[in-house]
Design a protein that fits this description.
The protein is built from eleven helices and no strands. By secondary structure, it is mostly helical. The protein folds into two domains: about 20-175; about 180-230, no CATH class. The relative contact order is 0.12.
Length: about 230
């Protein structure tokens, strides 16, 4: 087996980014977590921060390394963390076996996020921390969803919006971006049009959550098709 085949087998991402983009992602993550750590330490103390900060660290990766991903959008971040926090507290309060409560908190968080359309992977850690966290976290009860989860969520969202706005190519949230319509693309590129319902059908056949926005799908289709036509010239 060649190195290329091995990389393909284990799923090594072939997408590349510039050194500047990598540094920007690092800087955004550094600033957001520095602020959140200070706030959480002030509110709960160093020991409790150990349980809370990891989920926000995972959120930072999404917001600053993949700001256009569906999982990174404000409702996903806000709903994903708050709903998961409430579920985690409920599991701890009403389930006597901590092992079952821990597993149920994550499973139910995923289930709820699906139905509320706010899938955010770091929310699983937020739910889990409510179950396996320290006594001080348990004493907070449902207030855990407010302090520190709500406060940290709002802080990281504000930092992400302000920070990404500095760079013109980083539109966050994606709802602020100028949408590229399928009709405009097909008219300009002179290739067979693909309509919205075509994308919906294709995604329904996969029957799994695809971490990419519709607008990004259109852009990828446009760039790939143009590149293919240019190779044939």
């Amino acid at each position: 087996m060649s190195i290329v085949e091995f990389k393909s087998l284990i799923g090594v991402n072939k997408q590349t980014t510039s050194h500047a983009e990598k540094f920007i992602s690092f800087l955004g993550g550094f600033i957001s977590i520095y602020i959140i750590y200070l706030i959480t330490q002030e509110l709960l103390g160093v020991e409790e921060a150990v349980y809370i900060i990891p989920s926000m660290g995972a959120t930072a990766v999404l917001l600053f390394a993949a700001p256009s991903a569906p999982f990174s959008q404000p409702w996903n971040v806000f709903g994903g963390h708050i709903i998961s926090a409430l579920i985690g507290v409920a599991c701890y309060r009403f389930m006597t076996d901590v092992h079952v409560a821990a597993a149920a908190s994550v499973g139910l968080a995923i289930w709820a996020q699906y139905y509320l359309r706010c899938i955010h992977p770091p929310g699983g850690a937020t739910a889990l921390a409510a179950v396996i966290g320290s006594a001080q976290i348990h004493d907070l009860g449902y207030f855990y969803a407010v302090t520190p989860v709500l406060i940290n969520t709002l802080v990281i969202l504000v930092v992400a919006i302000a920070f990404n706005a500095i760079f013109s190519w980083r539109t966050y949230p994606t709802s602020l971006a100028k949408k590229t319509t399928l009709d405009a693309l097909t008219t300009r590129r002179t290739y067979s049009p693909i309509k919205h319902e075509d994308f919906v059908y294709a995604l329904s056949q996969i029957d799994s959550y695809v971490d990419i926005s519709e607008d990004d799908l259109v852009k990828i289709y446009s760039l790939a098709t143009v590149h293919n036509k240019e190779k044939q010239l």
